[in-house]
What we know:
By secondary structure, the protein is an alpha+beta fold. The protein has helices at about 15-30, 45-50, 55; strands at about 60-75, 80-85, 100-105, 120-135, 140-155. β1 and β2 form a beta hairpin.
Amino acid sequence: MVLGTYPSNVGGHAGVGWLSALFAVCLLTACATSPLDTSDVTSGATPTKVVELFPNHRGGRVQWGGHIISIANDARMTRIEVLSYPLARDGLPNTYRKPTGRFVLQHDDFLEPQDYAPGRILTVVGTVDSLITTSVGDTEFLVPLISAEQMNLWSDRYGSRSRSRFGFGVGISIGL
């Protein structure tokens, strides 16, 4: 035996290490996939790029996400305006990065404004339908309108990703 190496069959369990490694890789891969069906999604298309090259993207399928800015319901549908961020592999918007523009998604049903409140994080897969005008203060600009096919509203704990996770506490224990 060479110093610093291990026998390939320790205790009669050859290949257990490889099986464990393979299982770990499969588990990590499963954790890093989007909860939405992203087949046929146009990669690299950001809301800003879609506005600049709208004719090339009309009818295209995209996956975008970010912070909900506003929500509006009427008798036929719900519209949600979103400040978009680049997405991680699992579809979670990376709010540490620079925003990639704004978009509005349209959903054919009523969505509860308390659930889809401003500040919550959302990921959507949908089809680029048109460009609409929105405003921030007195400034108006065009944003893509997405017909929502699938949505994932991330839990509140993801909404605080850009905040500090440092905490300090004092504990007291009384033994009786």
